[in-house]
Amino acid sequence: MTLLNLDNPVFAAYVVAAALMVLKVMLQGWMTVVRMMKANAGWASPEDLRKGLINRAPDPAQLDPNDYVDRSRRLHRNDLENIPAFWTAGILFTAADPALWLAQSLFYGFVLARLAHFLAYATQRSHEVRATFYSIGSLIVIYMGAHVLWNVLV
Amino acid sequence: MTLLNLDNPVFAAYVVAAALMVLKVMLQGWMTVVRMMKANAGWASPEDLRKGLINRAPDPAQLDPNDYVDRSRRLHRNDLENIPAFWTAGILFTAADPALWLAQSLFYGFVLARLAHFLAYATQRSHEVRATFYSIGSLIVIYMGAHVLWNVLV
Amino acid sequence: MTLLNLDNPVFAAYVVAAALMVLKVMLQGWMTVVRMMKANAGWASPEDLRKGLINRAPDPAQLDPNDYVDRSRRLHRNDLENIPAFWTAGILFTAADPALWLAQSLFYGFVLARLAHFLAYATQRSHEVRATFYSIGSLIVIYMGAHVLWNVLV
Questions:
Q1: A137-150: pLDDT as tens digits
Q2: What pTM does this model have?
Q3: Out of C80, C84, C152, whose CB is closest to B15?
Q4: Which of A147, B57, B93, B117 is positioned for an S-S bond with B133, CB 3.0–4.6 A?
Q5: Contact at 8 Å (CB) between A47 and B126?
Q6: Complex-level ipTM
Q7: Are residues A48 and B127, on separate chains, in Cβ contact within 8 Å?
Q8: Is C47 close to A153, i.e. CB distance below 8 A?
């Protein structure tokens, strides 16, 4: 018998939360693209200054840092610092056969915390607000990692 | 019965694509190392200016940004923005028991798109070329995430 | 029968190593937070200069690069370049049903190499020391990726 199967409601909850986070990370890349196009700035590489469909009027200043674009890149980096660890912790946690209510609370709690973090960061709320949602997401992943270790080793 | 098993041809296709992407990401790190050694520049930390086997003639300018080295770091960052999400989306997609032809097309399509993105970026092709291959890879991962959600929730 | 189950001692070893790496990555984020608070510098976003609980005496210089804080961010980036690939390579390797002694050596060897890399980087050891531990970890992941491909394709 395997726990990593959609017949297991814990795994089904993991799949929903993990797939939502897949969409979150991938759409963050597109937010950077949209912001680069709108600002016509914040390009990453020297060759992006070649005239073409994406850049009709090249200007060396387009390679300068641009907070509107960099904010999306910082959001993306923050995602990468948290979400891949969630994907792995979640699958390990599922394999440890936890209570369904606990798994659902942690999985969906993480999704909600990251959504709130996104909204706080994108709308430039104070550091305290963003830090609160970051902390909730981070503590959920740390809890799952510790729970798994305890379960296997103790 | 489990779908996450090499007896399942969808999982076998996932394993091949995911392992190729593991090698891609890890070799990107070595490309940065090789470029740092060849350029003798683009070092990341103050202590890298200590004289030693890696750095025989230290010079503070070695800590300055260097496009030859940074290009490999940007490739690496772009990998990290796409490939871990592919690893997770692929395993979720496999658990959703898709048609084999569809799974193989998406898994190998992603590998080919990322390979083409690498070649376009490494050889400084125009932004349009690189963006096309980035988009193909990204849309494949987004499709897999959406397919999984649809499959579980609808 | 599934190999991705705690009854399989290879999977149990994977779970322990992967969970330790989950904790490593997440705690790296908190090391950055602690260093930002202690240095009262190295903040990432313009809105972090607003007066509040986290920042009682804002000063524009707090947005300047700060090596004490950036060192933790570089450690984090190095983790992201290596650990998610380990998480995936490890699960693929487990599915390839390797010998237990080999799996344990690679999984725990990776954990020890990354711990040594952390200590070398955090205490500013020479580039050669840090590079040695980076290389050990990287070669372990590359070996697992190649082993899996060989196993499935040959």
A1: 999 999 999 999 99
A2: 0.96
A3: C152
A4: B117
A5: yes
A6: 0.95
A7: yes
A8: no
